[in-house]
Amino acid sequence: MKIIRISFILALVAALSVINLLYFFNTRETLIRNQTNKVEVVIDTIVSSIESDKKAEKYFNDFMADELRTAAIAIQNALPPDIEDVESDELVRLAKELELQGITLFTQQGDDVVGTKSNLPEQIGLSTKLWAEGMWYQMFHQLLTEHEVTLIPGFGEKRKNFWSGPIDTSSANPNMVSKWGYYNDGTTNYLINPFMDDESISLYKEHAGVNKTIDDAENREDFVLDVSVVNSTALIEGERTTRDTGIVWLSDKLKVYGDYRYQSLDDRKHVLEALGKDDSIREIVKIKDEAILKQYHPVPFKNGDNLDDELVIIVASDYSLIQKELNEQLIQQLIASSIVFIIAFGGLYMLVRLITRRERTIFNVQEIYTEHIQSLFKTVREQRHDANHHLYTIAGLMKIEAYEELTRYVETLVNLEEPTRALVDVNIPAFSGLLQSKLTESGEKGIEFEYHFEHMEHLDLKLEKITDLVRACGNVIDNAFHAVLDNPITKPKKIVIYGLYKNKELTISIQNNGAPISSDELSKIFSFGYTSRKNKGGSGIGLASSKKSLERHGGTISVNSDPEFTRFIIKMPVSNKEILES
């Protein structure tokens, strides 16, 4: 039979462990999926915002291209056709009149197109051969030789005798970001390059574009830590820099939108994977020892007019929210598993008892309470403040049941001597055990301990109510012991307990003749942390926890004190189900 019990318990533990593991992984995946779905809503919003930005940028680029072409024709009409006859002062005047950021005239010099004259000195001598791997030079050369361009789709805007390049960083002045236009109709030996800043499109992006959408998402959603749109080429290959200045081209910057605060060394690998699949992927990464759930989503738009650069949205969301909810659900699952285990173990225990001791078909109330009090001891063993009360209770119960060997063993553990007094017999076995142990303790400490009970033989209280009643009475009796022992004047030292059941209410009065309690102390006595024995090891927990535990059952505890006695009065309602039939 013992082998059967052990085998059953091991099988039950194994089954519950497997169930809990499956529950853990399934729950974690569900929580991650739920947060991922929320992130995808944010991503869809960002994608729509980028699409709107692209439409606004196209409109803006078309508008500026037309403006720049008109300005270029005006410049051509105002300048001589030969570059040698053009004066820099004239370019300065024209730039001011036309409200341009600058005007540069380019000429073909060998296999390069070079800035020859400009209102900005830094533009002079500027080589264009290597811009964007020769794509700009290709446009310039066509304009100078053929006076038209074959437009590369998505790379700038084409007009008659005119091409406008994408908004980008100035090679000559990396602090300047401009929209560039280039014109040549064959009547001049130079390429006219008017350009203006991108202030209006920048204002749009700041107040109504993708960055505004990102800010709204980060502020609105508590799970969103950071939203960024990055240039995949810059992330994978590194940012390219302008000429010899070390400043990054606008079109080559890593951060296109957002702040990209949660960068990870694994981002490059995950971005490559997302681009390869052309689909979102999610990963849990560690950043400064913090777990972050990151989602990588390729955007179906290129980075401005740069045909090689693909955009990727990277959303960092708070994994700790998932972990917190997962922990809460795991605790609930463990509690449920523990209940299942206890029920199954209890069923096995009762089945074994039924088989081995057929003559005991009905357990008496005392045996049931004994079993529950043993369980109570296991449950509250970590509660150091209350542990001794329950140890004493168990010792008293064992004595009531005449488990002499077990009683001697328990009394050895709690350092009790075999009491010689009469047994305390109250119809609440756990309470009887507590009083039995306190009766023994009072004899050792020279305290007179009296108890009087009326009509309690009709009670059959619930175990939870008995447990909290024993805890509260134990705390009050202990405090009574301290009160009489701390008062050297009082002799004899006396504690009296009265118990009365009447009109569906149990009243227990515990009084002692220690020093009276002042009115100021009475007002604070049930507050957590308050104790009058701080210098003697008092914690201020016992009475406060007792009050709270009694209130769970609708009970109360009150105190009054006079020069003769201090009385703690506990009242507990009794339901019809807790009254034994006569």
UniProtKB/TrEMBL annotation:
Q: Where is the Histidine kinase domain?
A: 469-576
Q: Which reaction does it catalyse?
A: ATP + protein L-histidine = ADP + protein N-phospho-L-histidine
User: Biological process (GO) annotations?
Assistant: phosphorelay signal transduction system
Q: What's the protein here called? A: histidine kinase
Q: Which SMART domains match?
A: HATPase_c
Membrane spanning residue stretches: 7-25, 330-352
| SUPFAM superfamilies for the chain | ATPase domain of HSP90 chaperone/DNA topoisomerase II/histidine kinase
